[in-house]
Amino acid sequence: MDITSINWIAVISAAVVAWLFGAAWYMLLSKPWLAAAKLDPTTMSRSITPFIISFVAEIVMAVIFSMLLGTLTFGEPSVMAGVMFGLIFWFGFVFTTLAVNHRYEGFDWRLTLIDGGHWLGVLLLIGAVIGWFGGPSIE
Fold this sequence. Notes:
Blueprint: H1 8-28, H2 30-36, H3 49-72, H4 79-104, H5 109-133
């Protein structure tokens, strides 16, 4: 499979949906997240950079997800396959990484659950969108 077979409309759509989900998630959970992350909003710098980085990262995730989903489903992706692989990728890679990092960094499980819930939603949505649009064909 080469990069030219990627459905870029699906990738960009998945990244936009994931980014909007993240914005809503952290707006809803901003106070508990700030407390769990031990951050003081009065001393935080205001910058657009984290928002840009998160969108670019979600594009990268959607590209990789698209390539993996196309391969793992033998070129026949679906919404259900996207959601199932999103859950598997989240549990196998993202949640485990967050759990380890947050323990070493001295954060409690509240931060892991808030951040983990965000990334679970992101991967489920990316998987659903990529599965709905269809991933790249395998040859």
